[in-house]
Write a structure and sequence with these properties.
Bound molecules: glycine, manganese (II) ion
Helix content: 25-40%
Number of domains: 2
Strand content: 15-25%
Radius of gyration: 24 Å
Length: 439
């Protein structure tokens, strides 16, 4: 191809990533006795009885090769010993701009068909599987197995440890997201409403809303205590106590997932020290990240540390251990310490071991999405939180734990919602490296 900068490091990293991916697929397909696998990108859903579509992100295993989150109705055939065959749906269309592939070196290494139709390619004779959002009837018509769990599990496992290319993409996604977080903080301190904060974030991180890896969580005041708060008020509150912004970016398919919490001009004096406390305990937990560490143990350490923080700040009048044992820390933080991150924000294979055996979360921690031992190459989030959620705290009032909680202080913080500090980290052979730049 012409006009392609083959010397750029991302192209070199991508070439190595694709070579390793081909090798992984070869091994898995051979082991499972398959001649190939057909990956479907997926397509956007239409609203019922309407001609409008929901936003779309391609199937993760398709993106693992192609890195194009918006490539819809397209097919990729992987067979050992053959070049990947990509059939791109690019109809003649004067309503929309037909899909185009980027001017990048990887394109020349694939066999590409730009096609007016979105039908799956005919498969050669042999044993094939088709993966993605397809019906059993379509798989039958191709003579292929439909989403077989052994193949899916093996390929999921192949996404757990990231290549250098993937880590570079995740780092880039973090850089872009952090530019958004800086601007969003300014918008909040200048008096913006939730909607203004979201616009500032999108503008500075250079992305449209439908391209986000997840809907930004922009919570002012009590909304910061709604874990996945989904609205954007367009009027700023009269008193600005807090902002919790959980917002990311997608780069070549790979997701950043970053949260920051800021005290506003009307914050209770007890709030900023709590943010500092959560930030410090997050840093201590990050310091422990290394191969061989069990993520469930880190999650338990988060609860011990939250117990200590609650006691230090006078929110509870009991030992950290008693705060954990009585379920107080879990009422203040009902979510997990973090999760695997990659082509999906909550990436695949977080709750199985390397052989695909289930690793369910502890009974007390049903929301914990990562229950494995860490390995070099894994990318994880670390996102301790501390919230005032009366739905969870109120039941404690009646029991023994009720007497250990300083309800006056807790009620004073309710209008601040809560705190979450979230960074993205890669596990290295000797420890870890942070992908999230400073604010
Ligand atoms: N943004 C969703 C999460 O932090 O898991
Ligand atoms: Mn997260
Ligand atoms: Mn997040």
């Amino acid at each position: 191809m012409t006009g392609v900068d083959t010397s750029s490091s991302i192209a070199t990293l991508q070439r190595d990533h694709l070579a390793a991916l081909q090798q992984t697929y070869n091994e898995i397909l051979t082991r499972l006795g398959l001649d190939g696998v057909l990956l479907y990108s997926g397509h956007p859903r239409r609203h019922f009885a309407d001609d409008q579509e929901a936003s779309f992100a391609a199937f993760g295993h398709f993106m693992h090769w192609i890195g194009q989150a918006d490539l819809a109705r397209s097919w990729l055939l992987i067979c050992p010993g053959q070049r990947p065959r990509l059939k791109v749906h690019a109809p003649d269309d004067f309503w929309h701009l037909p899909a185009r592939l980027p001017d990048e070196p990887w394109v020349a290494t694939f066999e590409i068909e730009m096609s007016r139709d979105d039908a799956p390619p005919a498969l050669p004779t042999g044993r094939f599987a088709v993966l993605g959002d397809v019906s059993a009837a379509l798989a039958d018509s191709l003579g292929a197995a439909c989403n077989p769990t052994d193949l899916l599990g093996a390929l999921d496992e192949g996404r757990v440890r990231k290549s250098d290319y993937e880590i570079a993409c995740l780092r880039d996604a973090n850089q872009q997201a952090m530019a958004g977080h800086r601007a969003a903080r300014r918008a909040f301190l200048e008096g913006g409403a939730e909607l203004d904060v979201q616009f500032a974030y999108l503008s500075a991180s250079r992305q449209r809303e439908t391209a986000l890896p997840y809907a930004s969580i922009v919570g002012l005041n009590a909304h910061a205590g709604v874990l996945h708060y989904q609205h954007y008020d367009n009027v700023a509150p009269a008193r600005r106590r807090s902002l919790l912004l959980d917002a990311g970016h997608r780069q070549r398919g790979y997701c950043a997932d970053i949260t920051r919490t800021w005290a506003g001009p009307d914050a209770d004096p007890a709030f900023a020290p709590l943010i500092e406390g959560v930030t410090a305990l997050q840093q201590r937990l990050i310091d422990a990240l290394a191969p061989g560490v069990d993520y469930v143990d880190l999650h338990q350490r988060m609860h011990q540390a939250l117990g200590a923080l609650l006691a230090d700040q006078g929110l509870v009048h009991c030992t950290p251990e008693a705060a954990v044992d009585q379920g107080i820390t879990r009422a203040f933080c009902p979510h997990g310490l973090g999760h695997s991150l990659g082509l999906q924000v909550h990436d695949v294979a977080g709750r199985v071991d390397g052989a695909g055996r289930p690793l369910p979360p502890p009974d007390r921690d049903p929301a914990l999405r990562l229950t494995r031992k860490l390995e070099a190459g894994m990318v994880v989030t670390m996102e301790p939180g501390l919230y005032v959620i009366f739905m969870l705290l109120a039941p404690l009032k009646e029991g023994a734990a009720g007497g250990d909680i300083d309800w006056r202080l807790v009620e004073g913080l309710a209008d601040h919602g809560g705190i979450r500090i979230e960074d993205n980290l890669v596990i290295t052979p000797s420890g870890h490296d942070t992908l999230t730049p400073p604010v």
